[in-house]
Recover the amino acids of this structure.
């Protein structure tokens, strides 16, 4: 086995410069006195194959990756082993690279989301859930909500690309029961007035001037509004929800919990509360800067 001066971990995607993940993971590495560093790998699609080919080399110092848009499904072509949940999702956000240079794929997005939701005190059992966006994050959330024993009553899913929604439900349905998931034709069909949880799983809200996809009249105090966006911390949607008295959360907690799980997979350890607290503080400080 080759001894590396420093092991490397990192995030692949395009673009990735906005990511707060290096703050969280490098804080943990430093505290644990591990000779490792977390970096950002901004890759264009034509660079992906060469990047993974280089990772197979015995002298590569890279031993773990996170994966973000637009590659959570594209990296499946390079994986050697998929863990059961990742197999169900068919999207990957965490890769462990072992000493044999084998790529083992995980999806920590779904469990990370559910852990955060549970911490916030929201129980999905028999709830009506509305989701907008049919990308990789939505795929993971739909999977974890469908597979848990105490499932929601209904999940209504809308995307401006109806074909994308129908394909997603059909694809997931080939591996597990998706009877609680419904494809809808419009935002009005999400039945937000009768919903208990609204999830924005689109990037709309990240940029100043982005439209708010929901009329204020649709929101209500008994609706929990969860926006997967964490920068800005208060999107226009969350501000609107707060104005009608609805409880809200952004995606920072999901980022944190999926990151903790990813780190634990890379290091094959359970992080204690002190390390987790430092990782959380690093994320919060990154948002303020």
């Amino acid at each position: 086995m080759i001894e590396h001066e420093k092991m490397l971990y990192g995030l692949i995607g395009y673009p990735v410069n906005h990511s707060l993940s290096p703050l969280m993971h490098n804080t943990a590495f430093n505290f644990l006195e591990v000779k490792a560093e977390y970096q950002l790998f901004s890759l264009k699609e034509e660079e992906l194959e060469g990047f993974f080919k280089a990772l197979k080399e015995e002298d590569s110092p890279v031993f773990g990756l996170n994966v973000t848009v637009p590659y959570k499904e594209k990296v499946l072509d390079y994986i050697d082993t998929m863990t059961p949940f990742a197999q169900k999702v068919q999207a990957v956000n965490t890769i462990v690279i072992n000493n044999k240079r084998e790529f083992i794929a995980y999806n920590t997005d779904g469990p990370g989301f559910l852990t955060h939701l549970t911490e916030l005190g929201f129980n999905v059992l028999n709830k009506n859930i509305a989701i907008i966006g049919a990308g990789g994050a939505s795929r993971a959330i739909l999977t974890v909500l469908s597979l848990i024993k105490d499932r929601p009553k209904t999940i209504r899913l809308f995307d401006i690309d109806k074909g994308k929604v129908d394909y997603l439900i059909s694809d997931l349905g080939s591996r597990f029961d998706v009877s609680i998931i419904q494809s809808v034709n419009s935002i009005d069909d999400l039945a937000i007035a009768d919903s208990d949880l609204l999830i924005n799983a689109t990037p709309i809200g990240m940029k100043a001037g982005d439209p708010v996809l929901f009329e204020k009249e649709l929101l209500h105090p008994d609706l929990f509004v969860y926006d997967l966006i964490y920068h800005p911390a208060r999107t226009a949607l969350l501000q609107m929800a707060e104005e009608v008295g609805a409880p809200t959360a952004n995606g920072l907690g999901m980022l944190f919990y999926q990151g903790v799980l990813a780190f634990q997979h890379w290091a094959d350890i359970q992080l204690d509360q002190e390390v987790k607290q430092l990782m959380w503080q690093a994320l919060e400080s990154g948002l303020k800067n």
Remarks:
- Residues 273 and 279 are 10 Å apart (CA to CA).
- The radius of gyration is 19 Å.
- The first strand starts at residue 7 and ends at 13.
